[in-house]
Structure to design on (355 residues):
């Protein structure tokens, strides 16, 4: 039975503009590929928080558990502090639904000019596998003496053997499915952080279990430079929560724009639904103007369909996106075009239907 129950959470800002665009493309593909999606929309957002005092209801996570997937726009708006909105909605979903693998593809698509001189689609095609539930994003820490000269903030990073091993295993398994079978580890074991020598040990141990894989590792500082100077070196990059967060905004910058980058928060065991969302945020600077790039949300929808087993429909979306890049009128401003959110969505829908 190819009927999928999907929870949609548009959220804030351009989330409310790009999520409907992605849904429209999915709807357009249903009949042709023979699947069906039943959407349930949740209006959890900063706006809702200002009305109710909660980013989501107390049983919010429980409400999401029985869906096949979750499709989310963006969370965060200037009227609510980020540590209230994100800690109250996005981060608990990732954590409580054990979506520990954040898979962020970085691919220079046909029709996009990389800001890196002389680089084409062959040179930029890799995946950041980001640990998504622990590491630097731990709840252990606190603040003392607020507002005084003795004020301080403490944050503990938590790296468990189970959590570290399972993200590395995910990266090695993913690499097996790709051309070069290569895994790069993002580390920082030269800085005074107890977590990183441990990270390196677990990486070496996991590498020994995948003798056919090629491996290397770089400290995060020089790794950012290599992303810019040698993007062709990478195939799968495994990183802790914070390092992966930073790398996954840098990656899309070399592949054209944060406005096209997809992200999948995967629960690999399938015990809970996975969540699909663009890498970008709510973009308050352009929200409400109808100019947000819908490609990140649309590519994210393709990732979701692929995960649900609809790989032909997913492939069809990617080809249609590439076709839309051939014309400035169907590219948004962040890519140097003149198109609106609507123009781009309409073009991709038409190309999907024609393919
Ligand atoms: P952002 O991604 O919202 O915006 C960064 C810049 O990129 C802005 O100039 C914006 O206009 C541009 N941009 C982003 N997406 C675009 C698109 N689709 N088309 C064209 N341009 C686009 O990051 P930020 O400004 O750091 O964060 C804004 C808010 O969003 C904050 O509250 C932040 O916490 C939140 N945020 C949420 C998520 C999420 O929900 N997954 C991710 C990142 C940031
Ligand atoms: C992302 C975002 C989030 C993160 C924020 C909004 C909490 O930057 O999805 O990359 O840091 O994970
Ligand atoms: Mn981020």
């Amino acid at each position: 039975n190819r009927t999928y129950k999907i929870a949609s959470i548009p959220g804030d800002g351009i989330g409310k503009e790009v999520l409907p665009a992605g849904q429209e493309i999915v709807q357009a593909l249903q009949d042709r590929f023979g699947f069906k999606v039943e959407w349930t929309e949740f209006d959890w957002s900063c706006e809702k928080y200002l009305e109710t005092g909660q980013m989501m209801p107390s049983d919010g996570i429980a409400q999401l558990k029985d869906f096949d997937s979750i499709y989310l726009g963006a969370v965060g708006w200037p009227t609510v502090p980020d540590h209230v909105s994100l800690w109250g909605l996005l981060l608990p979903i990732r954590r409580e639904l054990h979506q520990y693998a954040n898979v962020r593809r970085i691919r220079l698509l046909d029709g996009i000019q990389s800001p890196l001189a002389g680089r084409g689609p062959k040179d930029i095609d890799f995946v950041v596998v980001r640990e998504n539930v622990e590491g630097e994003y731990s709840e252990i820490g606190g603040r003392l003496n607020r507002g005084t000269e003795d004020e301080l903030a403490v944050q503990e990073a938590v790296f468990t053997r189970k959590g570290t091993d399972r993200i590395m295993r995910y990266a090695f398994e993913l690499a097996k499915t790709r051309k070069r079978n290569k895994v790069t580890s993002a580390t920082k074991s030269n800085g005074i952080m107890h977590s990183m020598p441990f990270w390196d040990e677990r990486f070496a141990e996991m590498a020994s279990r995948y003798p056919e894989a090629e491996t290397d590792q770089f400290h995060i500082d020089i790794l950012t430079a290599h992303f810019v100077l040698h993007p062709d070196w990478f195939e799968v990059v495994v990183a802790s929560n914070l390092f992966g967060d930073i790398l996954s905004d840098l990656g899309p910058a070399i592949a054209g724009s944060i406005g096209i980058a997809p992200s999948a928060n995967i629960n690999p065991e399938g015990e809970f639904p996975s969540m699909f969302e663009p890498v970008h945020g709510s973009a308050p600077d352009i929200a409400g103007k109808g100019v947000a790039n819908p490609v990140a949300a649309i590519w994210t929808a393709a990732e979701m369909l692929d995960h649900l087993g609809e790989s032909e429909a997913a492939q069809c979306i990617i080809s249609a996106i590439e076709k839309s890049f051939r014309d400035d009128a169907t590219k948004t401003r962040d890519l140097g075009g003149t198109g609106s959110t609507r123009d781009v969505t309409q073009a991709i829908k038409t190309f999907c239907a024609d393919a």
User: Anything to note?
Assistant: The chain is about 40% helix and 20% strand.
